[in-house]
Amino acid sequence: MTNHIPKIEVLSGPERRRRWSTAEKLAIVQETYEPDVTVSIVARRHGIQPNQLFAWRKLAAQGALTATASQEEVVPASEYRVLQN
């Protein structure tokens, strides 16, 4: 067994979660499709859980991550309906 000491990241401030931009998520998801790379390896490299990465892959496959990649303002559906009426 190797003497691998995991890296620990301490989040200071009121936020307890990291925020990933859409571009970062897409780049990380793209890494999982490279040859000889597994989702677990990529997740470990970026300090996220594999199940989170699988969820991002699913969203990317559905086009949910690319829909907001254009950096355009997203309007809630309820607001859109009000504007239509």
Concise overview:
The protein is mainly alpha-helical. 51% of the residues lie in helices and 0% in strands.
Question: Could you characterize what this model shows?
Answer:
The chain starts with 21 loop residues before the first helix and ends with a helix. The chain is built from 5 helices and no strands. The mean pLDDT is 81. With 85 residues, it is mainly alpha-helical. The protein is 51% helix and 0% strand. The protein has a domain at 17-67: Orthogonal Bundle (Arc Repressor Mutant, subunit A), CATH 1.10.10.
Structural class, please? mainly alpha
- Global Rg: 17 Å
Low-confidence stretches: none
Total count of strands? 0
> What is the approximate shape?
flat
SSE order, one letter for each helix or strand: HHHHH
Quickly give the CATH architecture of the domain at 17-67: Orthogonal Bundle
CA-to-CA gap between the ends?
66 Å
Please give the CATH class of the domain at 17-67.
Answer: Mainly Alpha
The residue-averaged pLDDT reads 81
State the share of residues found in helices, binned by percent: 40-55%
Largest sheet: none
| Total count of helical runs of at least 4 residues | 5
Protein name: Transposase
Pfam family, one: HTH_Tnp_1
InterPro entries: Transposase_8, Trp_repressor/repl_initiator, WH-like_DNA-bd_sf
GO molecular function: sequence-specific DNA binding; transposase activity
